[in-house]
UniProtKB/TrEMBL annotation:
It comes from the Bacteria. Its cofactor is Ca(2+). Residues 22-349 form the Sulfatase N-terminal domain. One of its GO terms (molecular function) is metal ion binding. This is Arylsulfatase A. Belongs to the sulfatase family. InterPro entries: Alkaline_phosphatase_core_sf (IPR017850), Sulfatase (IPR050738), Sulfatase_N (IPR000917). PANTHER family: ARYLSULFATASE FAMILY MEMBER, ARYLSULFATASE G. It comes from Lutibacter oricola. Keywords: Calcium, Hydrolase, Metal-binding, Signal.
Length: 470
């Protein structure tokens, strides 16, 4: 009887724990290619912890970033809106191409306070929120600089987030780091490790009676490519005998950065287990744009900055024990804007349709109640110069159309038959190209996308000199 009474006393606690909203750990990796992790085909890079995460959740094969560069993709995740709708369409502050054929529009270089970001929506229902790592959503040297740190946009804690798009401390990825609320540690300390130390401390310190969002936005694998000497040595040795049958990027320093990332993911997952909260924690892992080299994209065409699949298709993994079947895969198209409504939906929080206008909840895909979602098209709009000329793109089912703004040229691909985008079908299927172009233009008009204009300072010879630097 005594034991029975003791069990009765435990029942309310158990019920509360089961009915509490899930915690969320969002892991965003910089410049990670579709082929950088073992679960997506990598063999040179070693990612046992990330592969384990994928085996415990759902892996998407058609997961996309909302832009081919960082700041717009990050804004899309946090707002649930396409970068074109936000008018935040390039990395802050973008490239300067004063003599290019087209002039870049007067685009937005900050996260506007009128947007209700994901952490703000979660705080409304009692979540604690913490941000770690790369922010890159604030102006540089402008009057309202101080008003745009993560802590001004819904995060209770900011570790490392500032205007930087890459580490710029004296040691870059090594101490000293010169980042907000992150101690420099000792000489030789590595940035990914130090941010993970902070993440572990935060997990320990979160109020155990409240759900939390930990948004860990890694600076890695963005350049400068740097890695601890012992890992560089390890992968140099591995490269000597590695049979590179998949044209993988055999950079020992970069492989070491990936290993440090994987170790970080493993430490965080272990801490969730140690705290006994893993079963009630949603873990998301994705990237902001394609890898920085051809060989990092799993055989896809092009890479970061380009309009093709290598610039936008991303690792996309979601784990939530007992709710998402471990080892499952999904081929449905999903994109960064979908995280906002999906996480609210999974947590049983009322949607904010006026905020996450372009996102779609993919809860039904994750929980296995459906294999399809109603949305058919995905869109991209990049009215800027980077490694490629300005472009727009649409993916409609298996079809993808790219429109280049300088000359109106088109590229049409059937990704089901040609995932590597080797054969432009515009000439052989002009009706499909025309239909998709019509949809793309209608979408741009519907969201008031900023367009480029003729540049009165266009100088082809000066532009050729400028292009040499890209």
């Amino acid at each position: 009887m005594k034991k029975f009474l003791q069990l009765l006393l435990l029942v309310p606690t158990i019920i509360i724990a089961q009915n509490s909203k899930p915690n969320i750990v969002f892991l965003l990796v910089d410049d990670v290619g579709w082929g950088d992790f073992g679960c997506y085909g990598a063999e040179f890079n070693e990612t046992p912890n990330i592969d384990k995460l994928a085996s415990q959740g759902m892996l998407f094969t058609n997961g996309y970033a909302a832009c081919t560069v960082c700041s717009p993709s990050r804004a899309a995740i946090l707002t649930g809106k396409y970068p074109a709708r936000l008018k935040l369409t390039d990395w802050i502050v973008g490239h300067n191409r004063p003599h290019a054929k087209l002039a870049v529009p007067d685009w937005n270089m900050r996260m506007e306070h009128k947007e209700v970001l994901l952490p703000e929506a979660l705080k409304e229902v009692g979540y604690s929120t913490a941000f770690l790592g790369k922010w890159h959503l604030m102006p540089i040297g402008q009057d309202d600089f101080e008003e745009h740190y993560p802590t001004s946009h819904g995060f209770d804690i900011n570790i490392g987030g500032r205007e930087w798009g890459a580490p710029r401390g004296k040691g870059r990825y090594f101490s000293p780091f010169d980042m907000p609320n992150l101690d420099d540690g000792k000489p030789g300390d590595f940035l990914t490790d130090k941010l993970t130390d902070a993440a572990i401390d935060i997990l320990d310190d979160f109020d155990k009676n409240k759900p939390f969002l930990m948004y860990f936005s890694y600076y890695t694998i963005h350049g400068p490519v740097m890695s601890p000497p012992e890992l560089v040595k390890k992968y140099k040795e591995k490269a000597k005998t590695f049979k590179n049958t998949k044209n993988q990027y055999l950079d020992p320093a970069r492989a070491g950065m990936v290993e440090k990332l994987d170790n970080s993911v493993g430490r965080i997952l272990d801490k969730l287990d140690e705290l006994g909260i893993a079963d009630n924690t949603i873990v998301v892992l994705t990237g902001d744009n394609g890898g920085n080299y051809d060989e990092t994209t799993g055989g896809l065409k092009a890479y970061k900055g380009f309009s093709h699949e290598g610039g936008t298709r991303e690792p996309f993994v979601v784990k939530w024990p007992k709710n998402i079947k471990g080892g499952s895969t999904c081929d449905e198209m999903v994109i960064g804007t979908d995280f906002y409504p999906t996480l609210l939906d999974l947590a049983g929080i009322e949607q904010k349709p006026k905020q996450h206008l372009d996102g779609v909840s993919i809860k039904s895909l994750l929980t296995g109640t459906s294999k399809k979602i109603k949305r058919k098209e995905l869109y991209w709009h990049y009215p800027h110069y980077h490694r490629t000329n300005p472009y727009g793109a649409i993916r409609d089912g298996n079809w993808k159309l790219i429109e280049f703004y300088e000359d109106g040229s088109l590229e049409l691909y059937n990704l089901k038959n040609d995932i590597n985008e080797t054969t432009n079908l515009t000439s052989s299927n002009p009706k499909k190209a025309a239909l998709l172009l019509k949809k793309l233009k209608a979408w741009r008009s519907s969201i008031d996308a900023q367009m480029m204009t003729e540049n009165p300072n266009f100088d082809i010879e000066k532009e050729k000199l400028k292009k040499r630097h890209y």
